Amino acid sequence: MSFAREKHIAYIDALNKKQDDYEYWLSEHLRMNGLYWGLTALCLMKSPDTLPRDDVIAFILSCRDPNGGFGAFPRHDGHLLSTLSAVQMLATLDALDVLAPSEVDSIVAFIMSLQLENGAFQGDLFGEVDTRFVYTAINALSILGRLTPTVVDGAVEFISQCANFDGGYGMVPGAESHAAQVFTCVGTLAITNRLDLVDQELLGSWLSERQLPNGGLNGRPEKLPDVCYSWWVLSSLAIIDKLHWIDHAKLYEFILKSQDDKDGGISDRPDNQADVYHTVFGIAGLSLMGYEDLVEVDPVYCMPKSVTDGFKKWPYE
Amino acid sequence: MHGVKRTHLSAQLREQKRQQDSNKIATYRRLNEQILALREAHDYSLESLAKNSQLLALNPEYYSAWNYRREILLALMAALADVDFVDLFNRELHFTLLHLKRFPKCYWIWNHRVWVLQHFPDIPSMEITPALIAKVWQTELAIVAKLLEQDSRNFHGWHYRRFVTGQMAALATDHETGAARVQLANIEFEYTTQKINANLSNYSAWHQRSKLVPQLLLSPPPGSLFERPSEFLTTEIAYLTNAMYTDAADSSHWLYLHWLLCELLPTMPEAEQMATLVKVQGVVEELNELEVEDDGVDNKWCLVCMGWIKKEMYRIGGDKGKLVEEMLVLVAKLVEIDPMRKGRWEDLVGSIGVEHEIQHR
Fold this sequence. Notes:
The complex is a heterodimer of chains A (317) and B (361).
Chain A: H1 5-14, H2 22-26, H3 31-44, H4 53-62, H5 80-92, H6 101-113, H7 131-143, H8 149-161, H9 179-191, H10 200-208, H11 229-239, H12 248-257, H13 276-289, E1 297-298, E2 303-304, H14 305-308
Antiparallel strand pairs in A: 1-2
Helix pairs in contact in A: 3-5, 3-13, 5-7, 7-9, 9-11, 11-13
Chain B: H1 11-40, H2 46-58, H3 63-78, H4 85-102, H5 107-119, H6 130-150, H7 155-171, H8 177-198, H9 203-218, H10 229-246, H11 251-264, H12 270-295, H13 300-316, H14 320-337, H15 342-360
Helix pairs in contact in B: 1-2, 2-3, 4-5, 6-7, 7-8, 8-9, 9-11, 10-11, 10-12, 11-13, 12-13, 13-14, 14-15
Pfam families (chain B): PPTA
Organism (chain B): Babjeviella inositovora NRRL Y-12698
Catalytic activity (chain B): geranylgeranyl diphosphate + L-cysteinyl-[protein] = S-geranylgeranyl-L-cysteinyl-[protein] + diphosphate
């Protein structure tokens, strides 16, 4: 099977035209993230103009919540998850300047207001704490060039408490290692320039054991393989410079087998229903491994490397 | 979307789905619009709560609807509304449980349950007593035990279990807190044993064990094995030996063994460390020989484990030159039997060499 680039592009292009599907309406709460996944996949496939730039920007701005953040959809609540996707897309589209300085200030204030005394972040004011939210906060502040020593030190302290016996990281201190949480923790430590805190041998070993005989990667021991871990595991390996610790050819084959070669899109594993989430993470994985003439992806930000190269690096001068 | 089989619908079936969806879409959009309008009108009534339940039943991932739900509950409490709050909160618990049974991996439902329980002590009612609150947490522990029986690896379940026991420990009065924590840690340690006995590959349970052991060694329950670390280590190694012999291919207990040795050995006299390592090495070598007899090939985890042991022996001061040679032999075998991770094993050859050179310079 070969990489169905044109079909994937058409698949993503058609996503916003599925108003006849019940699922379209049931997924409004994920629309901002979904748009980020779609746009990023298109950019990596060198087709950034498939979604009209002005429409994307107009949608993002229509999701602004008076609380300072962005919701997933107009009239939905501002949340860190959708705020990060909004900021990432504006950066990818080189459109951060559509935000007035005072608007940037209110986004920054929203994010910072969600940091707790122990350095962790809650996703919104209702208190769910998770290393995902630490990553989303730090990533968004980094894109906006607005990290501070207080924010960074707290986040780093919290993340280091989430390390486990196997070298991995979990959602909170005490929680089991999970490859997606590893990505959020290692990504945070990469942005904050504290990879020295990671037991890279032990973590790299655990991550490399995620590859199964069929080439796919799982997120935890004794679990099924899933294309999204082509990103969570692979990007984490790339960040600690151990991308070569798994078999690329076999993973490549697994991702291609998970494509829908008729209607486009990639699914969690072969013969399952495709979705935009697995599509972008499958493609981003292929990009990290250097397959298929894709745009180079940044393993920390999951955005085109050419975009992230422009971000201010921590510690600031 | 996870685990949903792909289907390519025929034109006829597509049309059929379109018609079915069109009714569902109309219902959902009407309800959604009502909820958004009620919320924007700051309507915090029991009627709105009921409508909100209908919407969340259709879409439990709708986080803004969960937020509205909490706003309603907070507003009712603030206004000291004429409702039976204990009953209301119990119904919230019932509501989330109902949906957790359908969607045991939905973050927002778990999050709401936690929120409800955290606000339980604040509800305006004379019925709220320490005994009632203790009973609430006991019930939660029973619920999550049941859930972990159905899916023993659900990380939401394990996370929730740690949250509940944390809350239970915090309930103890100040001077009892230490003792309560130790007692709970001990109960949880027994729980991991029970889960592992049911399924040796329960990585979540091994993980949990790795979190409890340091706590228990630091504050051992009176009369327990944890008061005597080296005896604890011997017992634990025997337990692990059984696991290795039962399923040598599963990584869970091997990783736990590695951690346990790294954690406990350095606290012991060097002679005892070496004796323990020699003993474990003997067990693993013997197991590997059996594996070779059965399968004609070395067992990967046995080789990896022998490598860890030799590295520890090197640290303590065995015959360094010989140990390095033996490690390199092990790694060469690993390259052969585990080609997917060839890059890792080749890096290991390099780092063993570099380490040794630095030591000898």
